[in-house]
Design goal:
With about 200 residues, the chain is of the alpha/beta class. It is built from eight helices and eleven strands. The longest helix is centred in the first third of the chain and has 19 residues. Bound molecules: nicotinamide-adenine-dinucleotide. The site of nicotinamide-adenine-dinucleotide has 24 residues, from helix 5.
Length: about 200
């Protein structure tokens, strides 16, 4: 089944809300309660969740733990995803520190072309030279590439990630990549979020 990016985004939001509820010791919730608590639409929640099977019971609501587990499976979060970060500067290093080896998203490799950084230890990693990318991907089983290089180095490193067998790329560099159809790219740009936010301050 093809799921739109908007639906995927909403499912992630539901999951975040459900985790908060689980932590607060809530075991059962109706779509209306979920909507009221987190400022969502109950109709939208019911419609979204109904697409993927029977998570709830009419009049009884959703079992929070079961729904959380179901959404995890649906979003592919019931397994670990291994990340290779190319560009171990400020941002790449911060990501490596933040996404340790045991989480759902784990940075398993950090690469750079600066000989002063290659071989240094950072959090749980030893920085490797970016020319070693194919071997590093094979050794670590990384499936997601993260680009934290300057804009003018983004396309060439994206292509290197594709050749190395990476299956999807998160791109932080302010560059429009020409993506290979088999290896989707998701751009992240804090500036865009800030611009959206500033619009509401007008
Ligand atoms: P940085 O200069 O600290 O780090 C960049 C790293 O990339 C350096 O370690 C450098 O040696 C390495 N590098 C340069 N060319 C390379 C190449 N050809 N191959 C491999 N490694 C190479 O920069 P930063 O502050 O960490 O930012 C990294 C990127 O992320 C920049 O493009 C920046 O504009 C972008 N950025 C994006 C956001 C966002 O919201 N998307 C926020 C901050 C920074």
């Amino acid at each position: 089944m093809r799921v739109s990016p908007l639906t995927l985004h909403r499912l992630s939001v539901y999951l975040r809300c459900l985790r908060q509820m689980e932590e607060a010791g809530v075991h059962r919730v109706s779509s209306q309660e979920l909507a009221d608590r987190f400022d969502l639409s109950a109709t939208q929640i019911r419609k979204d969740l109904a697409q993927f099977g029977e998570f709830g019971i009419r009049g009884v609501g959703y079992d929070v733990a079961r729904l959380t587990e179901g959404l995890h499976r649906l979003l592919g979060l019931d397994q670990q995803h291994r990340l290779a970060v190319v560009g171990m500067g400020s941002l790449g290093s911060a990501l490596a520190r933040h996404l340790g080896p045991d989480g759902t998203f784990a940075v398993v490799a950090g690469l750079d072309n600066d000989p002063r950084k290659v071989g240094t230890r950072l959090a749980h990693l030893e920085v490797r030279h970016s020319s070693e990318l194919p071997a590093v991907v094979r050794e670590t089983g990384a499936t997601i590439g993260v680009l934290t290089v300057p804009a003018d180095a983004a396309q060439v490193n994206y292509e290197a990630l594709v050749v190395a067998g990476i299956r999807a790329v998160l791109n932080f560099a302010p560059a429009r990549l020409k993506p290979n159809r088999a290896v989707p790219v998701k751009d992240v740009d804090f500036r865009i979020n800030l611009e959206e936010l500033v619009y509401f301050l007008k």
